[in-house]
Amino acid sequence: MTNTAALSLERQQPSESDIHTPVLLGEVMSGIGLVSGGIYVDGTLGMGGHTAAFFAAQPDIRVVAMDWDAESMALARKRLSMFGDRIFFVNSSFARLKEALSELNIPEVDGILLDLGYSSYQLERSGRGFSFLRDEPLDMRMDMTGDITAADMLNSLPHEAIEKIIHVYGEESWAKKIAKSIVEYRKLKPLTSSLELSQLIFRVIPRKFHPRRLHPATRTFQALRIAVNTELEQLRTALEVLPDCLKNGGRLCIISFHSLEDRLVKDAFRSDRRLAPVTKKPVAPSDEESSQNVRARSAKLRIASRCQSDSSEQD
Ligand SMILES: C[S@@+](CC[C@H](N)C(=O)[O-])C[C@H]1O[C@@H](n2cnc3c(N)ncnc32)[C@H](O)[C@@H]1O
């Protein structure tokens, strides 16, 4: 068997290392307010940690489980097989929730969860170059039907566009220098691997300016992932669409990991007349959760409730 075939076989079964620890689980459970017989949307299924907890708490619910990563969804499907036809799997972006519900003949739902970003599976095992510690193809697509990989971007965009991505999405103060080095490097050879990129960044940022607790490539990798997956555009569209999918009183829970995402959620929850914010400030993980799960540290949960916009307009 070739190495690739062995790897792809190995990837078909979820292993312990694939299992993403769901963040802010208790807070989501109390925020989403599960009711018996309700229908919920997990817009970012991942490995199904939140969905499994929904069923454990309220077995007679139904869940529309969305993820645009088909490979990860196949693993989650196996993991959640005991819930049978109480789960509808939809391999698509959460920005398309309205269409998905209409295809399922579901007019409205009782609650929606988005747990943004990427999963431990995608980072550790997908082989798509999300980790700066691994030597993998520099791909970074979550939806593998997308046209543009991280390598495509870095090997074709002008210097200014690369700098802007790294500066805006990565909040990286060395963006200009990193972008310049990428453009110099690709004159000799296209960038193709995650390790190649991370080593380049490691060399470009002077040692004394390496962040103390982060790998110097962390911010650039985050920026590229956001750009490749058009993450902010997906969230913007979702914030327009999702309130209309909720029943009156239904809850919208969004966990974000980036200040730009949190700002979009905060502004939408404040200004959208279809929504009433339930959390004034974002809910952060407890010290205990942060110490047990490093990935939870930057998580922020905001919750809003669907209200009738026309009645509030009359007030
Ligand atoms: C943080 S993980 C979710 C983890 C999940 N809550 C769990 O407990 O296992 C985020 C997931 O959302 C998916 N995702 C990100 N953006 C998406 C989008 N626009 N539409 C659908 N899925 C998306 C990713 O592919 C990833 O599997």
How does this model look, in words?
This protein has 315 residues and is an alpha/beta fold. It contains 15 helices and seven strands. It has helices spanning 3-10, 25-32, 49-57, 70-79, 97-103, 120-124, 150-156, 159-170, 175-188, 194-204, 218-228, 231-241, 259-271, 287-292, 309-314, and strands spanning 39-42, 62-66, 87-90, 109-115, 246-256, 275-277, 300-306. A seven-stranded mixed beta sheet has the order 3-2-1-4-5-7-6, with helices on both faces. The longest helix has 14 residues, at 175-188. The relative contact order is 0.13. The site of S-adenosylmethionine has 23 residues, from helix 3.
Which helices and strands, and how do they pair?
Blueprint: H1 3-10, H2 25-32, E1 39-42, H3 49-57, E2 62-66, H4 70-79, E3 87-90, H5 97-103, E4 109-115, H6 120-124, H7 150-156, H8 159-170, H9 175-188, H10 194-204, H11 218-228, H12 231-241, E5 246-256, H13 259-271, E6 275-277, H14 287-292, E7 300-306, H15 309-314
Helix pairs in contact: 8-9, 8-11, 9-10, 12-13
The protein binds S-adenosylmethionine.
